[in-house]
Amino acid sequence: MTHVHATAYSTPPGPQGGEIYRLALPNTAGAAKLSRDFIASLLTVSRHCGLVDDARLCVAGLVTNAHRHTRTSLIRVRVTVRRKLVTVSVADDDHWALPEPPAFRDLRGEQEGGRGLLLVERLAFAWGMTVLGGHLPYRKAVWFTLARTGSEP
Fold it and tell me: How many beta carbons lie within 10 A of that of residue 132, not counting itself?
């Protein structure tokens, strides 16, 4: 039996503000679909419908990378929803496999893999990688921020 756990938290008021939602997924082949559905529902309810397609592509790419390239037992998705910005972070417990920055190659190629970070690079307002924790084992997170079209963050 597979368990999925989602929680929502509100951050204190401040310059970053917003609401934080978390989803913990077992590292299985179905994790990418679950993360896509989670982000689509969340952004639709929070009135960020214009960001749904890009968010689904980006989160699926990052979750698929965590599934394929790590041995982590849980993949953690964290979404911070603000008025004009949405930031999504995908964390795993594998500190040995920080992803390589995307190579700028043609997306129309015949290869099946290797497009996740390239899509994030092209679709996101900003993105990056973060090492979490101050002692071994470190966890890493790959994150991206999407901005509403025509809005100044």
Answer: 14
Q: Please give the Cα distance from 33 to 103 (Å, whole number).
A: 25
User: The whole model's pTM is what?
Assistant: 0.78
Angstrom CA distances, 40 to 113, 116, 132, 147, stand at 23, 18, 26, 15
pLDDT along the chain (153 residues), means of 10: 45 59 96 97 96 97 92 93 95 65 50 70 90 66 88 52
Here the tokens at position 94 are 């594998």
CA–CA separation, 50 vs 123, rounded Å?
13
C-alpha–C-alpha distance, residues 50 and 40, integer Å: 10
Please name the residue that has the structure tokens 């929803």: 81
Residue 74 pairs with which residues in a beta bridge?
Answer: 26
Q: Quote the strand ranges of the chain, DSSP E.
A: 5-10, 19-26, 74-81, 85-92, 126-132, 139-147
Question: Which residues is 96 bridged to in the sheet?
Answer: none
Gap between the terminal Cα atoms of the chain: 42
